[in-house]
Design goal:
The chain is of the alpha+beta class. The protein folds into two domains: 238 residues, Naphthalene 1,2-dioxygenase Alpha Subunit, Chain A, domain 1 (Alpha-Beta Complex); 108 residues, Rieske [2Fe-2S] iron-sulphur domain (Rieske Iron-sulfur Protein, 3-layer Sandwich), CATH 2.102.10. The strands form five sheets. Strands 12-18-17-16-15-14-13 form a seven-stranded antiparallel beta sheet, with helices on both faces. Strand 8 and strand 9 form a beta hairpin. The two termini are 26 Å apart. The site of fe (ii) ion (FE2) has 6 residues, from helix 5. Fe (ii) ion binds next to helix 5.
Length: 397
């Protein structure tokens, strides 16, 4: 699905005519970052904020940010999911500060207004004579638009945003695959990591680097993989990577870390990166959702949430926890180098010039449409979508 080009009042950027070139200054400029919050994170896109299995019981909650906007996700007494702005309906103070927990009543400390799990104002120290015409019913916590797909909870702050079906643009099945098949998940735990890099560096994480930067991907034969990449023209992309397990001795003393234990599920790996900033990643027996949020032009928060299946036995559960932490978490064998290299990209981004995408390019001026598993050209359609949202004009050829 194509979106219309936005061109009014965008920050000044010289965007090269060659689609293989992306200006480095867009990663480090404060004015562009502020504009991205407005046009992308508060604009007409959907952002995943939680999976329903993170709040399985009545009263469970989770807080998070989209850009700088605080949100509160709850499971109410009817077992329904609610997403509310985490901002008191009185004077706007942040209501809940814990990352997650369980409660039936949320109290704002400033003037003690109380809200139930649906955001309804259920108590405040105001007598009828204190305020004429005041009714609690008029002051619930406000709510953004919400959509839930296979248990994944999306929000958008714009009334203009297309439906969630149009946003996913046919990738609903790929999302289910990347979340382990059916969305019936059990939360195993979290890791949180601050990247000292711009948010686009995370979204742009390309396939080519996988076996070059990450020794562990080499061990899993990414290089010779028979997988594929898929992309659309609204910024989403993903992998189906068919890794294979090494035979014999590896760099590990104990190969049980990289075993597949799960029966009846397609072997290999799949991931889906949704624009602007989210990834569902299934590698081996690890099922992970990565909720990512920009914090500043040079800082990005990465929240890993790891899941098992409802019918896992204890051995399988422990295996998934071990594999999620030691293979795919922030210190995991597969992914530990990313944070360091992202920081180096950010430092290097202050020097002039462009980021260059070459692996898999057929010509330099046309948006590529076909990719192999390891091509970095698969990132180009997403950059084109970004350029259009930001209203950056291309230089003439
Ligand atoms: S700001 Fe929350 S009670 Fe006043
Ligand atoms: Fe990586």
């Amino acid at each position: 699905m194509m979106m219309k080009e936005v061109s009014s009042l965008s920050p000044e950027v010289i965007w090269p005519a060659k689609v293989s070139h992306v200006p480095k200054d867009i990663f480090v400029r404060e004015d562009i970052y502020r504009e991205e919050l407005k046009r992308i994170f508060y604009g007409a896109e959907w952002t995943p904020v939680a999976h329903a299995s993170e709040v399985p019981n009545v009263g469970d909650f989770k807080t998070c940010l989209v850009g700088e906007v605080p949100l509160l996700v709850t499971r109410d007494e009817e077992s329904e999911i609610n997403v509310m702005y985490n901002s008191c309906s009185h004077r706007g103070a942040q209501v809940e500060t814990k990352a997650y927990g369980n409660k039936r009543r949320f109290e704002c400390p400033y003037h003690r207004w109380n809200f139930d799990t649906r955001g309804k104002l259920i108590g405040c120290p105001l007598k009828p004579e204190d305020s004429e015409g005041f009714s609690r019913a008029d002051y619930p916590l406000m709510k953004p638009r919400v959509a839930i797909v296979h248990g994944l909870i999306f929000v958008t702050f714009s009334e203009e945003t297309r439906s969630i079906e149009d946003f996913l643009d046919g990738y609903e099945g790929k999302l289910a695959n990347a979340m382990g098949g059916d969305g019936r998940l059990v939360l195993l735990g979290y890791h949180r990591l601050t990247l000292h890099a711009n948010w686009k560096t995370y979204h742009d994480n390309d396939a080519w680097h996988a076996p070059l930067l990450h020794m562990a991907f080499r061990m899993l034969n990414w290089q010779g993989g028979k997988g594929s990449q898929f992309v659309n023209d609204t910024g989403h992309r993903g992998f189906e990577s068919m890794l294979s397990l090494p035979k014999g001795k590896t760099m590990l003393n104990d190969n049980s870390l990289i075993e597949y234990k799960e029966a009846n599920f397609e072997r290999g790996s799949c991931s889906l990166h949704l624009f602007p900033l989210f990834a569902a990643v299934k590698h081996l027996d690890s099922i992970g959702l990565r909720f990512v949020n920009p914090v500043a032009v040079n800082k990005t928060e990465l929240h890993f949430a790891y899941f098992g299946r409802e019918d896992d036995d204890e051995e399988m559960r422990n295996h998934r926890i071990r594999q999620s932490s030691n293979l795919l978490g922030p210190c995991g064998l597969v992914s530990m180098e990313d944070a360091a290299v992202f920081q180096r990209l950010h430092i290097g981004g202050h020097a002039p010039g462009h980021q260059i995408f070459q692996k898999g390019m057929r010509g330099q001026y046309e948006i590529p449409t076909e990719f192999s598993q390891n091509d970095e050209s698969a990132n180009i359609p997403s950059w084109e979508y970004y350029r259009k949202i930001m209203g950056f004009e291309k230089e003439a050829r």
